[in-house]
Amino acid sequence: MISRKTLFVWLGPAIFLAVCLLLKFTSLSTHATVVLGLAAWMLTWWVSETVPLAITALLPIVIFPLFSVLSVKQATLSYGNSVIFLFMGGFILALALEKHKLHERIALNLIRLTGSSGNGIILGFTLATAFLSMWISNTATAIMMLPIAMSVVNLMKQEFLIHTTDESRFANFSTALMLSIAYASSIGGMATLIGSPPNVVMAGLYRSQYQTDFSFLEWFAFGFPLSVLVLILCYFLLTRLLYPNRLSKVSGSETLIRNKLASLGSWSLAEKRVLIIFSFTALMWIFRPLVNDALVSLFIGESKPQDLIDDTSIAMLGGILMFIVPADRAAKQFILEWDDSKRMAWGILLLFGGGLCLAEGLEKTGLIKMVGEGISSYGTLSLFMLVLIVSFLAIFLTEFMSNVALTTVFVPIGFGIANAMGIHPLLLAMPITFGASCAFSMPISTPPNAVLYSSGYIKMWQMIKAGVFLNIIAWVIIVAVTMTIGKGMFGG
Description:
Layout: H1 4-23, H2 30-48, H3 53-56, H4 59-66, H5 72-77, H6 82-99, H7 102-114, H8 118-133, H9 138-163, H10 167-189, H11 197-210, H12 216-242, H13 253-263, H14 269-286, H15 288-299, H16 311-324, H17 346-364, H18 367-376, H19 383-397, H20 403-421, H21 426-436, H22 447-453, H23 460-490
Helix pairs in contact: 1-2, 2-4, 4-17, 6-9, 6-16, 6-17, 7-9, 7-13, 8-9, 8-10, 9-10, 9-22, 10-12, 10-22, 11-20, 11-21, 12-23, 14-16, 18-20, 19-21, 19-23, 20-21, 21-23
């Protein structure tokens, strides 16, 4: 009898060969069939979790050069992408919070403010995460919230399981909490022009194509209502339909929280220094445009700003400071020592690198462009159908490729379709851009998913299940807002 594990190990390459053979009889190039086959292979292993996710993510390094899709050098570049180092810097910050128990102090105070019922805690985290993501990158937001959420889960687990023997209710609570942070990190970014990289890319493409600026207020008028609607329905989807916990306020929890806060004692010097570095990093993320302007003026003297720092360099600066700032006045040790890095989620860095490499293969072989050009050939479609189609494709494709790459490739195609049909280009560009932020179904789809997946409280199938439902909800809302607010702003 073949074990389930062995079956899925062999099923992956079998599916790869089957896809390649079947697509060989189509008009697709050999390189394109290899990329699609490898995507099917990797998804099989990722969904079944038969092989460690990080090991599956290394497959493109072997397969792409073997079939000349990408060279070894090109394939491995994805694993050194700047977003990987953004992850690393964020993980280092999280390690410092955890080592010196600052995350526990923050979590205890957060619970005291939001209440100790299951849904109250989830709501508090959802709102806080979405608000932060409106102003700083979704990845940075997720990284900041994860250690606090982990502390809350560990703290509440002790109390909830004393009062109930139904562990499934607590499992639902922890899963919904982690998913709500992952999803709110992406949803909040839709609300403002600076909230997510695809937003800035779209505005830049629009300015380049039509020599017209897209103002912050225009984006906010369109994006904020959409973001709020998706966020509300996301909360109810997780807490009422998919993972209801029915965990009411625990008797005596206020006393418990006060006692635990008291047990932490007064703030140590290490805690204060961790908080200063953490806050400095967060403020640099928030005010990065102003900091860049100041640096350019100081060192370059040009009137037109160019970025000297980005989210990645800020994250790495924060991480480096944790290793060089002393933890005490005697300077006997630093806030973090190298041994502390053993607890870092290195596998997640490889996981996201594999997703980026797969996305590079999809883009280089022209598969994404082919889909977009197929739509533009139908010139008789109504505006409603066009919005329906382009938003669906953006939501579907963003699960497998970079949201920035998708926006870069698809928005110009949206402009071309709009120009040909005589409609305002933003009525297609905006749904594409919002759809690119709706990567909810897999850890590889977007950094916040990967960050929260690293908590260990989310199974792959749970993220897929919740993500598919949320994708449908987001799709409906994007279409509805475009056909109402969008048409009101930009005309039919």
